[in-house]
Amino acid sequence: MFKGKKLKDVLKSSSKSDGQTSSKKASDSGGSSRFKSMSSAFKSSSIPEISSSGSGMSRIFAASEINKHGIRGRITATAFDQTQSLLAIATDAGDLHVYGQKQVEVVFTFDGKAPIKEIIFIKGIYLAAIDEKDVIMILSLYSKKVLTTVFTPGKLTCVETDPSLDWILLGLQSGTIIAYDVDRDQMSHFKIENLQKLNFFKKGRVSPVVSMQWNPRDLATVLISYEQSTVIFSLADNSVKQHFIYELPPNAPGGEYSMDISETRYPKVIQSLYHPNSLHILTVHEDNSLVFWDANTGQLIQARTCFETDVHKPQPGLVKMAPTGIPRVRKAAWICQNNPEYTSLLIANSFSEDASRQQNLVYIDLGGTPLYTLTTYDAMSKFYSRPKEQKIFPLLKESKIVNFLPLPRASPFFGGSHDPAIILLFFENGEMETMLFPSGALSTKSTLLPQSLSWVRPFATKSVGVSVPKKLWLGMMSNARNETGILKGGFPVKKDTRVQEVRSAIATGHSNGSVRIWDASPAELEDTSVYEVNLGSILNVGKNFAVTNISFSADTLELSVAIESGDVVFFKFETNPNYSPNGANEKQMEMKFRRFSLNSSNDVLIDVSDRAPTNMNKGMIPSIVVHLNRGAVSAVRNSNIGFVAIAYKEGSIILVDRRGPAIIHSDNLKKISRLNSNCVTYIDFFILEYGAEGYSSIVMLCGTDAGELLTYKILPAQNGRFVVELIEVVQSNDPSPVRYIGAFDKTIGRSCIATIAKMQELSKGVPIPGYVVVATEADARIVKVGKSKESHKSFKAPVASSSLSFIPYLGSKGEQKLATVLVNILVNGEIKILSTPDLKEVKSLRSPVALQSKYMQESSVLENGDILVRSGQFNAVLLSVVNEFATGLRRQPVDNNKLQSTDTLYNPTLKIPYRPQVSSLQWARGTVMITASQLDSLLSGEKRPPSKYEESAIALGTVTLKPPKKSTQKMVEAGGQYKPEDMAYKVPVRHNQKSGGYGIFKSVARTVETQYDYIESNINEYATAMGDSMNEAMEDTSKDLMKGAIGF
After folding, report:
1. What's the count of helices (H) and strands (E) in the chain, helices before strands?
2. Domain that holds residue 314
3. Where are the alpha helices (DSSP H) in 81-209?
C-alpha cells in the first residue's frame, strides 16, 4: 500500500492542508463485491487457537474493588466544621461521607435506616446525624465509629448547637425544648415548655419550635421561634427576656404572600437570626416578610421583603393582587465579614406553586452597622431599608433549591457565617453547585472540592474509562497539581499501589458542558489532579450544552466532546498561546469581541483556539468546533493518528483530519445499510491487513444499531491528503446495537489499535494479521476483515460493556506471557472472561459490589483488566479482574496489617477559638455572663457524670477558654485569615486615649466621664482586665458601681 517515502510525504503535506477534501469511494460496478450477506461471509473453517486459551490461565483472574467514585444517592443533609476543615454530606441511600484534604474520605453506612435529615459537628470531634425517624446517631471523628444511638421523646422540628459546647438543643413538635449532653450521652432534666402557648397565644393551637439560635455572644440566652412568636430566652434566669410578634394591621401589605389585607394577620415565622453583634434580630416569615427588631427593647425597626420596604405600615385603599411568579423565601443567612460589624444577608427563594419555575438568591449588602447607642430607630430603619448594594443571582435549574451552606474562613461562630468565600447550593434532585461569595458566580472548578462530589456539581451526564500509559499520565498529572482545594482537614492513609504500565483514567461530562479527566484510582497516588474544560464558555451558548459523548486519545492527549446540540469540540493538551498571567491585554480584549455565539455561524469547522482561559499556561486547549447542524451525535472517536470520526443519530458519518483541519469524508448510513440501520453506535481505527492483501492499511470500522459492520480504508492521495474508501458492509452480529469493536495481532496477541508508531511502519509494507472483535448487547464475534473466518459467543443476559484486555503474566517456567482476553460485564453483574480467538469461557466472576442495570451501559472495560462501572446516577466504581499476585509480577504481597484501613479525620492539635463575648454596653446593662462549664452545670445539674468516651479526654484543651490578651485583642483582616488568639469583639470606635495601668476602678472612672459610644467601644477591654485581675465578688461590685454611675 505505502511504498518508499510516500507515507512520509503524505503526512508532511497533509499537515499543511486545509478545507474540505472530497472522498474517494468505490465504483458502483464494484458494489456487489463489497456488500456481503451473512451466509456468504462466514463459511470457512474455525480459527485456530492461540496462547490465550491455554489451560491454567484462569488463575490470574479474580474480581476486586479498586476505588469508588461519586456518592450513592441524593444529598439530604450537609455540615461544615471550620476548625477541622471537614465537610460532611449525607445521602438518602444511608451513607454519610466526611471529606477532607487530598481526597481524604471516610464513609459511614447506615443501610436499612431512615434517610439522614440533619448533620451537626460538635466540639470538632463528634458528629451527630439525625434521621427522618428522629433517631440521633453520635459518631466519633477520632475512632470513626458510631458511639451511641439516641431515641428522642418526640418529633424533632429543629436543633441547635454551638462549636464550643457538648450540648444539642432539641426543638420538638409539641413546642418543648430539651437538651442532650453528647459527651455524657444523657438527656438533661432541663426543659423549656412551649413559651408561645404559655405566654402569648394561649387559646391558639400548639406550635412546634421552628427555629433556634444560640446568642453569638452570650451562652446564657437563646433565640427561639414558634409559628407566631419569637422570644429571647435566658437559660441562666429560666425566663423570657424579650418577645417579638409580627402583627400586620388591616391595609398593611405585608409580604407578597400575605393576603386578606382587610384583617389583622400574624404571618408564620420560618426562621430567626441574630445579628453578629447580638443587638438586633431578624425574623423571616412565610409571606416573604423580613422583619428586623431591637433585641433589647423588642421594638420593630423595619419590615420589608426582598424588594419592598415598610410593609408593616397600613396603606389605606390598598388593593393587592395574588402573587404570580414570585418565589418563596426558603432560607436566610446573616453573613459577616472578618469584622463582624460589616454584614450582609443571603436569601434563598425557591419555586412558588405556579408554573413560572423562577428561583434565585438575593444578596443584600448592609455594610457597616451603625453604633447602637448613637443611632435612632428611624436611622436604623433606613439602614435596613436602604442597603449599600443589592443583587439577584438567578438559579436556572429545573429543581428547587432546598438549602445552602456557607463555608466560613474566619471562625466557626456567628451561625457558621463568618467571612465565607464559598456558598454550597443544594437542590431537591440532589444536584449541588458552588457559588463564589459575594460575586454570585457559579464555579465549576472541580479542584475546589473532593472528586466524589464532582458527580453532582453539576450532574454527570456521561462517563467513560480510558487506558493511559503510566509515564505519560503521571507527567500530565504533575502539570496540573491541585492547590486550590477548600478542605484542609484530615490525613490521607497510605494505601497499596498496583504495579501497572497502564493506568486507568476516568472522564465525566456534565450538564453544564464541563468535562473532567482524572485518575480512576487516586488512592494509589500521593497527589492527584484534574483536567477540566468547559464547553459552555467556549461555545457561548445558553442551553443544550450537556455532554453526550467523550473520546480521549491517550497517545496524543487529544479530546473530542459532543454536546446535546450536536456540536463537537476538539481539544489538545498543549501550551496556551494566549496565556497571560498578569491579566487582560489588548489582544485579550480583541478576542472577547470575537466570542460570538456559534448559532450565528454558517461555517462547519470553526476555529476556537482563542477561547482557552487566558490564566491557564498549559492544558486542554480548544482548537476546532464541528458545527454541522445535523442533530444529536451517536458516536465519536478521536484516534491516535489525527483523525476524528463523528456519527449522528440521523445517519450521517463524517471523518475529520485534525491536521488541516478538513472534513475528508462524509456519508449517510441509510444509503449504504443492508439492514436499515439508523445510526452508527461505535467507531474505532486500526492498522492491520485487510483480507490477503499482503500489507497493512489504516482501517476505520463502524458498528451500527442493527449489528452491521462497516469497513473503511483511509488512503493517501496524490495531493498529500487522505481519502476514504468504503470497502465492505456485513452483518457481523445478531441484530442489536454494536457496543464495542477491537482488534488484535493473531501472532503476538497485541492490540492493532492505530498509533503513530504503527502508522510510521506502514511504509515498510509489513502485514499485521489482525482479528477483529465485534460485541453487541447480545453476542460477540471474531472476524477477519475481508475473509470469512469467525468465532461466536452468545450471552444469556444483556452485555453492558466489552473490551479486549492484555494481561501480562509469568508462565510455569517464569517466562513472560500475555493473556489476550475479551472481558464482558453483563447487566446482571456477571463478568465473563473469554479467550481469543475461540471465545471460550476462561472464567466467570461476579461483581463484588451491587450494581444498577439502568446506568451500566456507560461502563467501560479497559485494556489493563480494570472495569469502570457506572453503578448509579451519582456514582461509579472501579473494579479489576486481575489478581496481580497470581500473575507472578508482584512477588512480595504487602502486609495489610501495616496499612491503615481508612483516612484520619480528627486533628487534636487544632483549637477552637475563644467564643466572642457581648459588647461592653450589654455587659454594663447587666447581662449575666456564664462560661461553658457554668452552662454545663446549669443544664446537667450539680452532679454531671464523667464522660463515657475517650474522645472527651482527647478533645480536652482544644476549646480556648481564656480570652485573648489585651495587647492582641484585634481582628486580623489580611487575606481573610483569622487567628484564634485574636478572637474578640470589635465595633466601629472613636480612637480616644486609652486607660493606663492604674487598675480597674480608675479605668471605670475615666469611662464614666465620657459618652456612651466610648463606653461601648472600650469597656470590653476593661471587663477582660477585671476577669484577669479580680475575683467574682470584686466583679459584681464594679458592675454595680458602673450601673450607678451611668444611671441604669
Report:
1. 17, 57
2. 250-429
3. 195-199
Domain shared by 422 and 552, yes or no: no
Residue whose cell numbers read 423549656: 192
Task: Tell me which residue of 786, 778, 629 sits closest to 709, measured CA to CA.
Answer: 786
Express each pLDDT in 694-709 by its tens digit: 999 999 999 999 999 9
Closest to 514 measured CA to CA, from 459, 553, 557: 459
Q: Virtual CA dihedral for 627, 631, 635, 639, nearest 10 degrees? A: -10
- Clarify whether residues 470 and 420 are in a common domain: no
Please give the grid coordinates belonging to residue 490.
484530615
In this structure, the answer to whether residues 293 and 393 fall within a common structural domain is yes
H/E stretch holding 1027:
helix 1012-1029
Domain assignment present for residue 791? The answer is no
Last residue of a domain, one of 559, 592, 627: 627
**In sequence order, which residues have a C-beta less than 8 Å from that of residue 942 and are 6 or more positions away?**
none
Residues 6+ apart with CB under 8 A from 766: 695, 696
Instruction: Using the 3D structure, point to which of 607, 627, 647 is the last residue of a domain.
Output: 627
Burial of 862 (0-12, 13-18, 19+ CB in 10 A): buried
Per-residue pLDDT tens digits for 946-995: 988 999 888 888 888 777 664 343 443 333 333 433 333 333 333 333 33
Domain shared by 349 and 424, yes or no: yes
State the pairing for strand pair 61-70/860-861.
unpaired
Q: Are residues 600 and 508 in the same domain?
A: yes
Backbone phi and psi for residue 901, each to the nearest 5 degrees, phi listed first: -75, -35
616: helix, coil or strand?
A: coil
In terms of domains, do 411 and 513 share one? no
- DSSP of 634-675: EEEEE-TTSEEEEEETTSEEEEEETTTTEEEEEEEHHHH-SS
- Residue 572 three-state SS: strand
Distance CA 759, CA 744 (A): 16
Q: Spell out where 528-615 has E strands.
A: 530-534, 547-553, 558-563, 568-575, 605-607
Is beta strand 779-783 parallel, antiparallel or unpaired with respect to 770-776?
A: antiparallel
Q: Around 860, how many Cα atoms within 13 Å sit in the side-chain half-sphere?
A: 21
Supply 741's cell numbers.
Answer: 469493536
735 in a structural domain: no
What are the residues whose beta carbons fall under 8 Å from the beta carbon of 610, sequence distance 6 or more? 578, 591, 594
Q: Is residue 422 domain-shared with residue 309, that is, in the same domain? A: yes
> Who's near 270: CB < 8 A, 6+ residues apart?
210, 211, 284, 285, 286, 329
The model carries a pTM of 0.85
Which residues make Cβ contacts (< 8 Å) with residue 317, sequence separation at least 6?
251
Quote the cell numbers at residue 195: 413559651
Q: Is residue 241 part of a domain?
A: no
1044 dihedral zone (left: phi>0; alpha: psi -120 to 50; beta): alpha
Number of domains in the chain: 2
Asked if residue 524 and residue 408 are part of one domain, the reply reads: no
Identify whether 350 is part of a domain.
Answer: yes
User: Angle of helix 1012-1029 relative to helix 1032-1046, nearest 10 degrees?
Assistant: 170
Burial class for 1042, CB neighbours closer than 10 Å (0-12, 13-18, 19+): buried
End-to-end CA, the chain: 104
Amino acid at 758: K
Per residue in 158-212, pLDDT (tens digit) is 999 999 999 999 999 999 999 999 999 999 999 999 999 999 999 889 999 999 9
